[in-house]
Write a structure and sequence with these properties.
40% helix
Length: 100
């Protein structure tokens, strides 16, 4: 997504059926993601991005921690994600709050 000499990123790829352009679009605008981290096309959270959310106020690390906690709850089965349409709708509502 970007290159910088001070940044070393880990990338995990899997066969998801997504095109790289779809992933790049979501990564460029985390407001399109459910809770700014989970790709709404997948109800079990197969694809998620952390650390891309920019809060209206406050710091990025606490937001990333909360996203990772949400994701941990999804992956360990203690939280079930809503259907993709609901996730998209919630993402749109959240996006409207931030774009004022």
């Amino acid at each position: 997504f970007f290159e910088h000499e001070d940044v070393c990123e880990d990338v995990v790829c899997q066969k998801s059926g997504l095109k790289m352009k779809d992933i790049a679009t979501m990564a460029k605008n985390p407001r399109l993601l459910y809770k700014q981290s989970i790709f709404p096309a997948f109800t079990t959270g197969e694809i998620a991005f952390f650390g891309f959310a920019r809060p209206a106020f406050g710091a990025i690390p606490p937001c990333s921690e909360m996203q990772s906690r949400l994701y941990a709850m999804v992956t360990n089965g203690s939280l079930e994600l809503p259907c993709p349409d609901t996730m998209r709708s919630i993402a749109e509502q959240d996006q409207a709050i931030y774009e004022w």
